[in-house]
Amino acid sequence: MYKRQELARKIVDLVEDKQALDITLLDLRQITVLTDYFVLCTSQSTRQTQAIIDSVATELKQQAGLLPLHPPEGSNDSGWALIDYSDVVVHVFDASTRSFYNLEDLWKDAAVVVKIQ
Predict the structure, then answer these.
(1) Mean pLDDT within 33-43
(2) Is the confidence at residue 100, as pLDDT, over 70?
(3) How far apart are alpha carbons 29 and 43 in whole angstroms?
(4) How many CB atoms lie within 10 A of CB 25?
(5) Using CA atoms, how far apart are residues 9 and 6, in angstroms rounded to an integer?
(6) Long-range own/partner contacts, residues 47-52 (CB < 8 A, 24 or more apart)
(7) Do 20 and 83 meet the contact criterion of CB atoms below 8 Å apart?
(8) Residue 1 pLDDT > 70, yes or no?
(9) How far, in Å, CA of 2 to CA of 32, rounded?
(10) 3-class DSSP state for residue 56?
């Protein structure tokens, strides 16, 4: 079983393995009770978005027996997919949707733990 920060960093590794872009790990523990960490990343296609979500879900289930709180949210045409592990929430965006919602600015008081361009 992963500790919270280990889980967040493992997810960063998994999305990086699927060639996600602009990966950011935000530490939200000091500013909200909703979750501890956000992993934000950008995909270049709907197929890549699905591959990222599938990889995270499959690897965490196989390696640690972890299941998300509910099935992944979002659709292939929405530009945003989300998978919620309670302590860590993973957001996979296409570039325009990420720019539009700009979660980094919305959660600007969160500490940036990892930033991979």
Answers:
(1) 96
(2) yes
(3) 26
(4) 23
(5) 5
(6) 48/18, 48/19, 48/20, 49/74, 49/76, 49/81, 49/92, 49/94, 50/76, 50/81, 51/18, 52/14, 52/15, 52/18, 52/20, 52/81, 52/92
(7) no
(8) no
(9) 21
(10) helix
Radius of gyration of the chain (CA): 13
pLDDT for the residue 104: 94
Beta pairing, strands 111-116 & 37-43: unpaired
- Asked whether the predicted pLDDT for residue 103 surpasses 80, the reply is yes
| DSSP assignments along 69-108, one per residue | SSSPB--TTTSEEEEE-SSEEEEEEEHHHHHHH-HHHHTT
Residue in the block written with tokens 């945003």 = 80
pTM: 0.94
CB 90 within 8 A of CB 80: no
